[in-house]
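Problem: given the chain below (237 residues), write out its structure.
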Amino acid sequence: MSTEVIFEIKGSVAIVTLNRPNRKNAINQALLTGLYNSLEKIAESNEIKAGIITGSGDSFCSGIDLECLSTDNLFDPRSDGKDMPNIFGYCNKPIIGAVNGYAITGGFEIALNCDFLIASENAVFADTHAKVGIHPGWGMSQLLQQAVGQRLAKQFSATCEKISAKRALNCGLVNEVVPTASLLTRAIEIAERICSVNYEMMLTMKKLIEEKNSTTFNDAIAIERKGFKLFLDSYKR
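Solution.
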């Protein structure tokens, strides 16, 4: 496992820590490789039921390390044709983003790819693609508006303004804001609660909710009803 990413297991929960604190966990090829490997390990493990992504030091992730733009392969870091949306999409298990400090641009995209976010009081989000002149590629243009609505997404991306933890909570970007010292504890508490429910049905619920991302409302309802009929039929055999 890459030293740029720390992978730990606590019970049935995997904790993935972005680990370049001297660069505020800025993204280079090695960090992406470690992140992708960690997510695949979560997806393929029979023991791990949920994952948490956080950052070491005082930042979650400050975005792409500009010094690596001309040297590192950030589009296909493992040379296997898979990039960030592919990897997150492959992992059907819940991934919680525990956002401490700055989550900027590419780091904001890592957060947005998580299923939901818990933020510390000192968390700060910003989409600065337009400020630094970097084209988005890990979901910013779609995932941000999915989280906060198109009008706010346009404002945040056009102005590159910083979004405080309080504002992120008010606009639905994050689920909870907790004291900085309690962030990981709270994320683990939520992950362990996820692990304690009927796991297969939880995964079914997660998949049904996500149907909205790729089909119409009526079709998504039809998929749910079809599954319910199969469930009822299973009790009549």
